[in-house]
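Q&A log
Question type: sequence-to-structure
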Amino acid sequence: MWRIPAKHSWNDLFGALASILVLIPLSIAARAQDAPPKQADPALPMTAQSKISAAVEFSIAAIDRALEQRVPKRLATFDDRATLCWHRRILRREVDIDCAYSGYVERAGAISLRAEHGRLEKAVPIYGSVSGQGLGRFARLLHGTAGGALTVYASALPRLRPDWTVALGMAEGFRWQEPPVLHLLGFNINLSRYVEPKVRAQLDRVGAEASAYLRGIDLRDKAETAWRSAFTAVKIFDQPPIWLQMTPQTAAFAGMHAYGDALEGALQIAGTVTTTIGAEPPANPPTPLPSLGTDVAEPGKFEVVIPLVINYDAIRAKIQDVATAFNNSGLTLRDVKAYPSGKTITLGLRVATADNTDGEWIYLSATPKAGGDDKSVHFPDITVSGGLQSASAPLAAWFKEEAHLQALQQQLRISYDEQQKDIVASATARLTRSLGDGFRSEAHLTSFGVPNVQPLDDGLRADFKSGGDLKILYGL
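Response status: OK
Response body:
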């Protein structure tokens, strides 16, 4: 049983307890005042204005095959009569001979298409055989057969019309390798002027067939499919989960382009791309395909905000790694705190001395920055923000030495290079995928800006813009 000595009164006991209770909170408050408050700014939204190239690609080889099926090998046969096939002065008399000619023109090889400097170039080898027979009493004795080879050349600058049809704008031309000339009685009769109209008519047919093939493809329907696909959220990284979601707003012609083995009709889709970390964002309902804007010189560049998160455990571990600077001065790092204080972070270091093995808390303030060749987050302005006035003399002297803080600034660098490479590689792989119904997307992220760093509750978030190309393709 507790007993109160007679010489002490209840009032004395209560007074002593009250003194103790007053001293305890004052002591705690004194220590708490040394530590800067924990305070994280609201996270900035991760949005970027961006553009997608939605392209419908056609294989030039597929057009070749279509033309091969539609355009027959024998392009034309003819049997006609012409006046003044041959004119000569014989025995001081002007002699005009009419003639009849017949023959055929056919393709001597396949129709070859290729892309060159943004244009669609066509070449068709053609062979023609012509027989001629003079008309009249004596002229019927004049007859002969000749053949000639020529190559048809056509150049087209494809254009996408406002009604979503393709205009090829083909310009035809050809030249003879061996013009069809009849050699009769020592004279030459050039029949090319009779054959060429037939050839030109067939060239028009080839151009019409190519145009008909492209008109048969419903570009508007495919543009609407590409537009709807652009609204889908895509998970680009697993840990932590990172999602990209675009909100398309406008669409404009990006022109028709011919390159390699492809003819491409491109649509530029512009809007905002939002990056979120965590759960999948709510679905973004597609809007109807808007009215098309004017032509643009080339499809725009895709930009997206890629976030990197460096948690405070990584910062604490890095400080433990550089703690040799303390050991060389007779100090020992016992514990580390790291937390946000507005736009800066607070680093709490519990450092032990020979006289105080438990350690005393010193608080540092630092503004995180990113960039540099080593792609790291560094802290160029480390300063003491608390605990120095109540610290023991050896500890206070060490932190007052400017060279020591400079050494911490130089060593306290946290690389994000590998993390950035992992996220970008994952984003490129996840954005390059099949979309179904013949559509697919292809991503190429190539450029990276200097990140903006924010101290948040769960760590430092470095947001940097990554640029490149994102295409929604149909065809090849």
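Response note: The first strand starts at residue 39 and ends at 40.
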